[in-house]
Amino acid sequence: QAQLVQSGAEVKKPGASVKVSCKASGYSLTTYGLSWVRQAPGQGLEWMGWINPYDGNTNYAQKSQGRVTMTTDTSTSTAYMELRSLGFDDTAVYYCARGGDIRAFDIWGQGTMVTVSS
Amino acid sequence: DIQMTQSPSSLSAFVGDRVTITCRASQGVRAYLNWYLQTSGKAPRLLIYVASTLHTGVPSRFSASGSGTEFTLTINSLRREDVGTYYCQQTYTNPRTFGPGTKVEIK
Description:
The structure holds two protein chains of two kinds. Chain A is mainly beta. Chain A has no helices and eleven strands. Chain A has strands spanning 3-6, 10-12, 18-25, 34-39, 46-51, 58-60, 68-73, 78-83, 92-98, 107-108, 112-116. Chain B is mainly β. In chain B, the strands form two sheets. Chain B has a six-stranded mixed sheet with strand order 2-10-9-4-5-6, with no helix packed on it. Chain B has a four-stranded antiparallel sheet with strand order 1-3-8-7, with no helix packed on it. Chain B is globular, with a radius of gyration of 13 Å. Chains A and B meet through strand 5 of A and strand 4 and strand 5 of B.
């Protein structure tokens, strides 16, 4: 069945960058959009943006704009989200999810915990 | 940006109770409204899409309705496995905003 499997937890220092991967299996990555959503400890869900793996077009939330880059490698069915200039408030679980256009997010990765700590 | 609100922010009900959660959008989102459930420590999972369509495998005790700016999610006969936080989300326009969540507990 279709699933998304994310890379493992990361600990980063303030000012560093992190790159989280999300490998799709059981479906063609290029057939659906791929979104990234984060959740700070004890908080709600925050949409960061999405990528259309078919043509590489992206749409980022204004809050993330300038610090985030979403890419895909269709040869390995893997999506990536890179976040730069990390601050303490970037500490969160980062999820990838299938969807991004008008469709609902029907499959989610297991989440990747990113901790920003000095 | 479209702002999503949910009420109540939390509720406690008995097993077997009927539970209703409301989601409101600051602007019309037509029927592009989805509902998710997040149980402790896990990724959210899709329950309802385009306002009223049950996702595959979601029990029929869940139902939803609405259009435009006001939406409801109803759980008929609450079960222990329904405990968690429910989020609405609009996918009508960017950014794809989520509501703040409604935490459901068992009395």
